[in-house]
Write a structure and sequence with these properties.
By secondary structure, this protein is α/β, with parallel strands linked by helices. It contains 22 helices and 8 strands. The protein is about 60% helix and about 5% strand. α9 packs antiparallel against α16.
């Protein structure tokens, strides 16, 4: 095998790995398609957009965005986190055609952000916050899908936010579901979860992915219950629009209203969508890379360009704004997806299902899809994960736990923002403690203290250095060594100079070594980075 690969050209190597991974990507794409289908429809409904808009967004997210993206496991489509923005934007702009123009402009803005290298923002999200976000999403998946597993399916897509559009919250929805459960749905979801857990344990059977078996079981049980008193209601099933003929299909597409290009509100909505969608995408990409078994790193700037292209195309043909979606991407990883082909194929299946097999798709019970997401949620929020984060220390565990709770009780962006604030607090706390090192020696009469400043001494270290200098006892020799310092903030220089000036009154002799009068902020040598990127 080694000799075979060594003789392949670059193009042949791509074909080799495509063929090698296809046996994993194809089954995974079907699972992602089955998870994405009801989500596309539910999010469109919750956003006040046509159902077809949700499907066309999922198709574009799968085929167009994945083709341009550099991420191998990310799956894009309409996101629950944008429902409130979309619902309000359509109402503000007056009609859906004007909203489509805003979506298209948002896509152009994202392309500009990607070309301007704004994707590097994703590198500044702390690992503890990203891990907390993933665990929170896992818990949210479990809480949000429990009602659907019990047969309460008024809105499968649900809402990632704690407060839902139907005026209920996550916990009240679960409580209400316990009093309205369906025996058939419980049987389907329970059997589905058992299959998802036990099927992979048999290596010979594991060739066929467990989620695919779950779908077949769901359809079979639906047909079995059909003529009994336990029959599932239409709202407990996947519902996909049935299109009769090509003309009816093409008539579903809607063009944006370009006459509103000068409307100020259109540009405000476009900017809002571009910023929020970009942030959600960067968070999702960071999270997806963490659960990638191969630990690949996705190019974030390219991802912003890909999302921009997707939103531009989506706005042109009547779709909704999209982001990289962690729920679908997690399902992709859980189903064994290896490359971006799984996401591309999922878009193809969405398109074909809409045209060719809507009747078969409408036989799938939502309870079996809820089971897939329940197991996915458990994998993201295992108890072992909380133990591992606790063992890393309070500076990792506290931001992690705060992020988990904040995301659960608010929404994704607010929760991550709160987690970032707590993480920054611990970062500043650590930074304050690492601004200098000192050594104390004693001769016959006086103490000698050598204070060695760190490489970077910012204004954040001002308080720690001030406190340390004020605690130096009288009659001490002090050497402040700046040999290693590439930058010392002017505020810190002022403190050091004032200390030296006033120290004689306390019998303290201060000597400054290799400390300049002023420092300039060190610049990053971009030539090395540009050479690497060539």
């Amino acid at each position: 095998m080694k000799n075979e690969k060594s003789t392949l050209s670059g193009l042949d190597i791509k074909k080799y790995f495509l063929k090698k991974n296809l046996k994993h990507d194809l089954p995974a794409s079907i699972v992602v398609f089955l998870v994405a289908l009801p989500l596309c429809l539910g999010i469109a409904m919750a956003s006040g957009a046509p159902l077809f808009a949700g499907l066309i967004t999922g198709i574009i997210g799968g085929i167009v965005v994945s083709s341009v993206s550099g991420s191998q496991l990310s799956v894009s489509g309409p996101a629950a986190g944008l429902t409130v923005i979309v619902l309000g934007a359509i109402a503000t702009l007056g009609n859906y055609q004007t909203f489509l123009l805003a979506v298209m402009l948002a896509g152009i803005m994202q392309i500009i952000l990607g070309l301007a290298k704004a994707g590097t923002i994703g590198n500044y999200f702390p690992s503890s916050v990203i891990t907390g976000m993933l665990a929170a999403i896992g818990i949210i998946l479990i809480l949000k899908q429990l009602p659907h597993a019990l047969g309460v399916d008024s809105d499968f897509a649900g809402d990632e936010a704690f407060m839902q559009n139907d005026q209920q919250n996550t916990f009240s929805a679960v409580q209400n579901a316990l009093g309205q459960f369906s025996i058939a749905a419980i049987v389907i979801s329970t059997l589905s979860i058992a299959v998802l857990i036990l099927w992979p344990k048999f290596k010979k059977l594991a060739i066929v992915p467990a989620p695919l078996i779950v779908v077949f079981i769901g359809i079979a049980l639906t047909l079995m219950f059909a003529n009994t008193g336990l029959a599932l209601r239409p709202d407990q099933m996947v519902t996909i629009p049935i299109v009769n003929g090509w003309n009816e299909f093409t008539g579903l597409f809607t063009m944006p209203d370009f006459s509103q290009i000068s409307n100020k509100d259109v540009w405000v909505v476009a900017g809002t969508i571009a910023i929020v969608a970009s942030l959600e995408t960067l968070l999702s990409i960071e999270a997806i890379d963490k659960i990638d078994p191969v630990k690949r790193v996705s190019p974030t700037n390219r991802e912003l360009v890909a999302q921009g292209v997707g939103n531009m195309v989506s706005g042109m043909v009547g779709g909704m704004p999209m982001t990289s979606v962690i729920v679908r991407s997690s399902a992709n990883v859980g189903a064994g997806g290896r490359t971006k082909m799984s996401a591309i194929f999922h878009g193809v299946w969405l398109l074909l299902s809409l045209i060719l097999i809507p009747f078969v798709i409408n036989l799938i019970p939502l309870a079996c899809l809820a089971a897939v997401l329940l197991v996915t949620g458990y994998k993201l929020a295992k108890i072992d994960l909380f133990k591992q984060m606790y063992q890393k220390g309070w500076d990792q565990f506290v931001p992690f736990l705060v992020t988990v709770l904040a995301v659960i009780f608010t929404d994704l962006l607010k929760g991550v923002a709160i987690g970032m604030v707590v993480s920054i607090f611990y970062l500043l706390r650590t930074n304050m403690r690492n601004s200098f090192f000192y050594r104390i020696t004693q001769d016959d009469k006086k103490k000698n203290i050598r204070i060695k400043l760190a490489e970077e001494v910012s204004f954040l270290n001002k308080a720690a250095i001030q406190m340390m200098l004020t605690k130096i006892p009288p009659e001490t020799n002090v050497i402040i060594d700046g040999t290693n310092a590439r930058f010392i903030d002017p505020d810190v220089l002022e403190i050091i100079n004032n200390f030296k000036h006033n120290a004689y009154s306390r019998g303290i002799i201060v000597q400054l070594e290799n400390i300049q009068k002023n420092y300039t902020v060190p610049k990053i040598d971009t030539r090395v980075i540009e050479e690497i990127n060539k």
